[in-house]
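Quick illustration, no need to memorize.
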Amino acid sequence: MAASIRNIGLVGVGSMGRPMAQCLINAGYTLTVFDANAEAASGFAAQSGATAAQNPAELARQSDLIVTMLPTSAIVESVLLGETGILAGLRPGTRVLEMSSGVPSHTQKLAQLVAEAGGTLLDAPVSGGVPRAESGELAIMVGGQSEDVEAVRDVLASMGKSIVHTGDVGSAHAMKALNNLVSAGGFLIGVEALMIGQRFGLDPEVMIDVLNSSTGMNNSTQKKFKQYILSRAFNSGFGLDLMVKDLSIATGIAAESGTPAPFSTLCRELWASSASLLGKGQDHTAAAKLIEHLANTELHSGKP
């Protein structure tokens, strides 16, 4: 445990924030939590020994370090600002770890607001989903000054196995969006390959085994296709709407930088089409249903 950091405040006790909060407690930190869903915060506090704050300002006044794990940059901004926002209670010199998947340019603006209030914001988005959040083995990207990154490294190490300093503030959020772009592309092409193979006469389960011992292996073939698609569970814990948001961030970075990205644009459109087809509240692995809908065929284990 970092000697100068004992009391941590975490805002956002959702599907990812909750196991991350538990990892912090397991590492010996004293934790204060806040969530827009007061029952989620109080329930976690009762189960874990954390303290539930009435508002973000109260949480900030009790914290040596603040973690935000929220759906969007706009929500992070709303939690920072206002009479009961984080900045209203921020202690001088406090660091804010923005661990959501944010828009890089928005993150840089938020960092300026935190700096004006006497603190420092670092962006530290994560990859690995709920299973690796629960095991404390997330991959964490961090944007900010080197000395600030080193000051929070022990805290990050309690939640993640891989910690990579990506550059200045905002760079980690850019890297997270681009990572999800690559992951999303691999997912869709893999589902299409399974559909082609199944309609040819191959067993998708056998196909996945071959892919995982061959050059077609990726995160989806290893950790999603059997677990969430062939099982028909579609419950990985990461929302389809959040994937579309991250892909929109990635293609937005391409547009802002003047980078031609035709495949990335198509990838984002296919994921958005899946979200439109399925409606709100879907797991991202349910995007496979778009391919099934187009082929009028459901993927399943066993030969057709």
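The chain has 16 helices and nine strands.
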